[in-house]
Design goal:
Helix content of chain A: 40-55%
Radius of gyration of chain A: 14 Å
Helix content of chain B: 40-55%
Oligomer: heterodimer
Strand order of the largest sheet of chain B: 2-1-5-4-3
Strand content of chain B: 15-25%
Number of strands of chain B: 21
Distance between the termini of chain A: 30 Å
Largest sheet of chain A: 5 strands, parallel
Number of helices of chain A: 6
Shape of chain A: globular
Order of helices and strands of chain A: EHEHHEHEHEH
Chain lengths: 132, 651
């Protein structure tokens, strides 16, 4: 299983997962996805991906708990929270727990890309030669 | 059985009148009758005495023919039935009716009965006992009076020696007179009185009927009609106040009740609207944002592939633009539902204005809208949340641009430092009575703020008054208006403690004053004369005018019709037909209120509108910011009364 992923998306909404996948795939990023907190944390991509996109409202548990677990499992992994109901308190707490950025829904392709570019670790960066 | 009040009153009053007049009539008739009879008895007695005296010598000298003649002559007089004399054995000796002479009467006959009722005949009788009334042979009543003829010395010592000395009564003179004339008189009198009584009863009943119809029925029917309309849900009913008596009061109370009901219903609807906005916003935001993400990202992916200038590209751009509009609407809902307390920091509103204009410039330029900035160079910093202030300005600018529309025009954003006098502006955010009862009534708002509830009394009546909570403004709401110029007594509606200030006199009209306490800010003193607009809030006046920063956003757009002005800050109020959720200005109001500031609007239809917002420079010292925590949640609507907003627009 030599499969490796650049980005892990945890969101219960299929259209959000597929949209993220499509937009990022166009940029040559390999995207893994999970529908809830438990399957997300259990996903092999947790160990290898370079960025996680995490919905704060999940069917099985709070996104903040998943964020904490992710931080515990991969302290260096940048996590961007996405939320359909951004409140001052929830984003504030997400930042306190260690999120690097947040992306309010609904977003368009360029907004997603901008956030992902900012959040991806510099050393690898986006493979710019593949973009054109 | 249905019987109208008027009919019942008529019947009742008729019966009572009939009874009292009837009794009176009977008494009058009886007295009249007794008087007539008594008069008759007197004249009959006199007649009988006259007969006795004029026949005295005839009897003494036993001149029977002469006696007969006298009795006959007298008996022929009109009204006299008979004159007769009988001896003590009941034998008729003389009579005007010759046929009965020598006949004997039974001692039980009515003429004898007066004396011979007991075993031993009486010798002297009082007048009433000598009188008898009986029916004569023709059916008419007849009055008889007997007059005993006593024995005396000349009788037994006379030449004829007809009577012995031992006899006391020799015989009886009996005069009977006809009562026919008197009875006719009595009957006529009786009918006259009965007729008058009937007339009085009828007149009284008619008067009652007419009064009832005029004074009661009309107003009651109006009230009943009004009540039916209220029952059908129409709270706009107002009963014409034609009656000046208690029913007029009732109508006034009814009108006041429906007005309050309508008001309460409106407030409930408003609160209901707001509560559902919160729920709706949270739910809608979460549910709609996911599909919107799909639409936005996929359409922007497609857009990348579409050729520049192609029809497909234009169509996709429409999809993206419209989807973004959906996003903005949802965001508006969220902003409204969330309304977080401001994170205040010293803020330069000039800076906020510049930044905001830069942010919305692109969109505005597209609509041929020019923006002019007129910023005061020495504007003091205010304590405010720059992001929320930016949101306020964005909302105002977007509104202004919408008002200008396709035609093109100018928006002027200006700032300046002003000093706002406390009079007419400073809200009383806390009010208690001397014993500490809270007088603020959140259920009644004047200009969006909870009013101060007091009770007042005059002329024996007591009513609630809601004082305008803005110092120096007098848009009080009275449950029952007191006459202009009336001095009323004010008290706490809870503990009844009087609010009168001992020794306090209104400097304008000399009337006593009353006061409420603003905890931490001393008493607020008011004149107790209705219509006298005097008040004094010493603690606030001593502070003098408080410095504010004023930001105005003026446009050259279509303007706001006067009837819409009071409602434009209400949530869901929109004139933009298909655009927006009607929350922009409600959010704006909430934010400004949350900062302890005010926002006013003035507008001329066809010329444009001007929004003026004022923020206190030093909120920590102004009374309104002290109460920040207790202040109504920004979610609270501006309330019904933007009359304040409109009224102050020209200040």
């Amino acid at each position: 299983m030599a499969e490796s992923w650049d980005v892990l998306v945890i969101d219960d909404e299929p259209v959000v997962r597929s949209a993220v996948q499509r937009v990022l795939a166009e940029e040559g990023l390999r995207v893994a996805s999970a529908v809830d907190g438990a399957s997300g944390l259990a996903h092999p991509a947790v160990a290898t991906c370079r960025l996680a996109l995490l919905d704060l409202i999940l069917p099985d548990c709070s996104g903040l708990e998943v964020l904490r677990a992710l931080r515990a499992a991969r302290p260096g992994l940048p996590v961007v929270v996405i939320t359909g109901y951004p409140t001052h308190e929830s984003t504030q707490r997400a930042f306190e727990v260690g999120a690097v950025d947040y992306l309010p829904k609904p977003f368009e392709a360029s907004e997603l890309l901008a956030v992902v570019r900012r959040a991806l670790p510099d050393r690898d960066g986006l493979p710019k030669e593949r973009r054109s | 059985m249905l019987m109208r009040i008027g009919t019942r009153m008529m019947v009742g009053v008729g019966l009572v009148t009939a009874l009292s007049i009837g009794v009176t009539a009977v008494l009058i008739v009886r007295t009249h009758q007794a008087d007539l009879i008594a008069g008759l008895i007197r004249s009959a007695d006199q007649l009988s005495e006259t007969v006795k005296k004029s026949t005295y010598y005839d009897m003494l000298e036993n001149r029977r023919d002469s006696l007969h003649r006298v009795i006959e002559t007298i008996g022929r007089q009109e009204g006299i039935e008979k004159v007769r004399i009988f001896n003590k054995d009941g034998q008729i000796m003389f009579s005007s009716d010759k046929t009965e002479i020598r006949r004997s009467l039974d001692k039980r006959a009515e003429a004898c009965y007066g004396c011979h009722a007991v075993d031993r005949p009486l010798e002297k009788l009082p007048i009433p006992a000598r009188v008898r009334i009986f029916r004569g042979p023709e059916g008419t009543r007849v009055l008889g009076i007997i007059n005993p003829i006593q024995n005396e010395q000349s009788c037994w010592s006379a030449a004829c020696h007809a009577h012995s000395r031992q006899q006391t009564v020799l015989g009886v003179l009996d005069v009977t007179v006809s009562l026919a004339a008197v009875d006719r008189q009595i009957a006529a009198g009786r009918w006259q009185i009965l007729g008058l009584a009937a007339l009085a009863i009828a007149a009284t009943s008619l008067l009652v009927w007419w009064l009832n119809r005029r004074l009661v029925l009309g107003p009651v029917e109006a009230l009943a009609a009004g009540t039916r309309r209220v029952a059908e849900g129409d709270l706009s009913v107002s009963i014409p106040l034609t009656a000046t008596h208690e029913l007029g009061d009732l109508a006034r109370a009814f009108n006041e009740m429906t007005r309050r009901l309508a008001e309460t219903q409106r407030q409930l609807t408003q609160a209901d609207k707001l509560a559902s906005v919160g729920r709706l916003a949270a739910g809608v935001a979460h549910e709609i944002n996911n599909p919107l993400t799909g639409v936005l990202t996929y359409s922007s992916l497609l857009l990348r592939r579409a050729e520049e200038g192609s029809e497909l590209r234009q169509d996709l751009e429409v999809i993206i633009r419209e989807t973004k509009r959906c996003r903005d609407i949802v965001k508006g809902l969220l902003d409204f539902a969330r309304a977080t307390p401001p994170k205040s920091q010293p803020t330069d509103l000039n800076e906020v204005a510049r930044r905001t204009v830069a942010v919305v410039m692109n969109q505005l330029a597209l609509n041929r809208v020019a923006v002019a900035l007129d910023l005061s160079p020495d504007l003091p910093l205010v304590s405010a949340d720059p992001n929320q202030m930016q949101q306020v300005l964005v909302n105002l600018l977007v509104n202004a641009a919408d008002a200008i529309g396709e035609a093109g025009g100018t928006i002027t954003v200006s700032t300046r430092a002003v000093r706002v006098a406390p009079w007419g502006h400073t809200p009383i955010r806390k009010a208690t009575c001397p014993t500490g009862c809270d007088l603020l009534d959140p259920s009644v708002k004047i200009g969006g703020l909870p009013a101060i509830r007091v009770s007042r009394s005059w002329d024996g009546q007591t009513a609630t008054l809601h004082l305008d909570p803005v110092y120096g403004r007098f848009n009080h709401v009275a449950s029952q208006p007191s006459p202009d110029g009336q001095i009323t007594l004010f008290a706490c509606p809870r503990c009844q403690q009087a609010l009168t200030l001992p020794g306090g006199r209104c400097p304008r009209c000399e009337a006593p004053t009353f006061g409420v306490r603003a905890p931490g800010w001393g008493p607020v003193e008011f004149c107790s004369r209705t219509g006298c607009h005097w008040a004094r809030w010493e603690a606030i006046e001593r502070q003098g005018p408080h410095p504010c920063v004023e930001v105005t956003v003026a446009d050259t757009g279509v303007g706001i019709p006067p009837e819409d002005l009071p409602r434009i800050f209400e949530p869901f109020f929109t004139t933009k037909e298909t655009r927006g959720a009607g929350l922009g200005l409600a959010v704006t109001w909430g934010i400004v209120e949350g900062h302890g500031g005010t926002i006013d609007v003035a507008s001329d239809v066809g010329k444009g509108s001007r929004f003026t917002l004022r923020l206190p420079v030093k909120p920590a010292e102004a009374p309104e910011s002290r109460a920040l925590d207790e202040r109504a949640h920004p979610l609270q609507p501006p309330g019904e009364d933007h009359g304040r907003v409109v009224g102050r627009a020209g200040d």
